[in-house]
Amino acid sequence: MTEALRVGIAGLGTVGAGTLKILTERADLLAERCGRAIKVVAVSARNKGKDRGIRLDGFKWVENPIELANDPAIDLIVENIGGSEGVARRLVEAALTNGKAVVTANKALIAHHGVQLARLAEEHNAVLAFEAAVAGGIPIIKSLRDGLSANRFRRIAGILNGTCNYILTTMWEAKYGFDEVLKDAQARGYAEAEPSFDIDGIDTAHKIAILASLAYGTPPAIDKVYVEGIRGIRLRDMEFADELGYAIKLLGVATMTERGLQQRVHPCMVRKDSPLGAVGGVYNAVQVEGDACGTVLFEGHGAGAGPTASSVVADILDIARGVNYKPLTLAVKTLKKINTVGMEALRCSYYLRLAVIDEPGVLAEITALFKKEKISLRSFIQHSHNPEETVQLVLTTHETPESAMLSAVKAIGALGSVTEPPCMIRIEHL
Amino acid sequence: MTEALRVGIAGLGTVGAGTLKILTERADLLAERCGRAIKVVAVSARNKGKDRGIRLDGFKWVENPIELANDPAIDLIVENIGGSEGVARRLVEAALTNGKAVVTANKALIAHHGVQLARLAEEHNAVLAFEAAVAGGIPIIKSLRDGLSANRFRRIAGILNGTCNYILTTMWEAKYGFDEVLKDAQARGYAEAEPSFDIDGIDTAHKIAILASLAYGTPPAIDKVYVEGIRGIRLRDMEFADELGYAIKLLGVATMTERGLQQRVHPCMVRKDSPLGAVGGVYNAVQVEGDACGTVLFEGHGAGAGPTASSVVADILDIARGVNYKPLTLAVKTLKKINTVGMEALRCSYYLRLAVIDEPGVLAEITALFKKEKISLRSFIQHSHNPEETVQLVLTTHETPESAMLSAVKAIGALGSVTEPPCMIRIEHL
């Protein structure tokens, strides 16, 4: 058996502590699986005294995590500090520069600095692995890189943020509004006190940018991702969605269109009996469409100590086995700059909910505006019919260009008979 | 860039031709992904003249596939001949002995001779890879080996045979009997003229034996798999299942029980809204339960040229990249002989359908026999009630030992008031 792989862990939050626990409590099994002992030698965190349910006295305690990167007795560093800048970034850069392997769950870091870090890893013959950065315990990064590597990818679509999926699922199941459910999720620890990162879609954007990079062999382009979160979703829209056969999910979607790569994060209506439509609660799922494999679905826990640490430790075992993939699969110099397209290139079906004064001629006004943009309507729902009161009018369209739809929605929103800003949700056919 | 990886393909049926097509039509993309050109240099099949939709004139044609194993101009052999013995086995043995890499979709070969072939591969420092042997385009073998390698596995349960799943799905959707649907599946090419291998569960047994071997680090033990196929399933049972909230699926299940590894293939009732319950048609799906990752589901196409070739080519790219996993993940000498247990160790809930003469006292007789075996009933359905006629009586039990259930069923089947052999189906909680 080769020498032990010596690990330093920076950050002992949920994932760091979970990783430490797995590495220590099943050391023999892991050594058997990778042919080599994995030995945690040093740890670093903000608060040494905090009760994490694990004894730390067998490990060297390091106050400044950067020291781990300079310790010749460490081969691999697990970065669990988080954030795209600051200590996390400096630690990873220093470790790679010193030829040490780095395993991280830090999607912001990879989405923003993936290319720079990959180049650093290549220059110093170091490994940089981040399976845990996307979809927790689901091995989606390895699957895109290895298992599905024969494919040209048509689309990658995923429920990539457990907080959002929990909120949307709970709104629908408990029939509560967004704000109430968010508060409840915060109380349960499913959402952060500052929830913007999750509910405004930023976290999902990081993840889809990483998946798109791997699938299409291009640098992660987080600034090219269209991002729209779930704050605008009303329970009422879920009820209409259900009536139309849909569920509302926050999806990250990467598609190769004729004009280039499109990446977007926004609430979608998806058939409720489709694989992604059926994924509830804190679960994550990714649907990969390849030209050889067809559609492959991966579903599992997207967060939490066990699932995320499962992926962190899997990366560690890979490295112990000597697997040395390029961080972004392709060597940095062969990454392609490919055209990217924004939402103007999208064609899809749309759901539109309007609050209108129920008086004769309103529907005619609205349909005239659709006609003007050459948008073909698919269905129409109006539940109550109380003259002179505000009623909810729901329309769905056939496939239509986003630009035409936006023009129509703008014009419709300006009508005197429309009493609230229109609610538009894209329908994704999966 | 390193020298090209030179490939010989033996067998040009669906999978072989699909592999050849992918390797030739996107050679540049694949070379980019693995950092090395993949070059098909020779092919072998039974019939040179057959139209496969691909030109073969650029490749050396070899009549006897074994010659590929002895050709110094070949680095890797794709074995698509099939069968656990004969030419396929001799070819793989010869290739590994000569230090050549082998990629195969041959589950029978791996399930029966996996250990011997893995040993041969180790001795000659050759790679043996078989992602395509289980679940077609779903990267389940790599996921067990790499992505989920941090886990202790509680259970692996899968819909692993597309033919069976197609038959069961079609019976239910079209409301046809087993024999009719089998004939239809044969006409469509979804079932073989000699369908026993699929519908009697043998193919599923090969696959679950391979997955169990990888998950539990033990030699594949095909002779320890309990196997029961789907010939006995009636549409009537599907209707009752649906009424009870279940769908009927042929599952391969491997579980680590307290007393040892249990492997079984049989029809199961699973909640119709569970991930596996919702998998229809020719799709395959595997549910992996790990102690760290939790439940992870993989779903995709289990067969066909594209999906299977997708996995074959993924293995080829791995080998081109220099990835050198042990064929059974662990080195042969570290594979563990673990206790195996048979169906006598199973505890589950059961569905039992009885055709009984509807006369007073019958139910009392039956429930007395359940009571004698200390089996607790969970539900009871009897649709019609026409005195003196045969009626269908359906019972489900709480969790109970298989042995007690079999005794009860035997005694119930012997009752004068029971007019047909009882139909017992196990209920799997997923």
Count interface residues per chain for the largest interface: A-B, 56 and 56 residues
N-to-C span of chain A: 48 Å
- Name of the CATH architecture of the largest domain in chain A: 2-Layer Sandwich
Highest-level CATH class of the largest domain in chain A: Alpha Beta
Average pLDDT reading of chain A: 95
Number of strands of chain A: 18
Largest sheet of chain A: 12 strands, mixed
Report the total helices of chain A. Answer: 14
Approximate strand percentage of chain A? 25-35%
Rg of chain A, alpha carbons = 24 Å
CATH topology of the largest domain in chain A: Dihydrodipicolinate Reductase, domain 2
Give the number of domains of chain A: 3
Question: What proportion of the residues of chain A is helical, as a percent range?
Answer: 25-40%
Structural class by sheet pairing and helices of chain A: alpha/beta
CATH superfamily of the largest domain in chain A: Dihydrodipicolinate Reductase, domain 2
- Uncertain regions spanning at least 5 consecutive residues of chain A: none
Oligomer: homodimer
Shape of chain A: elongated
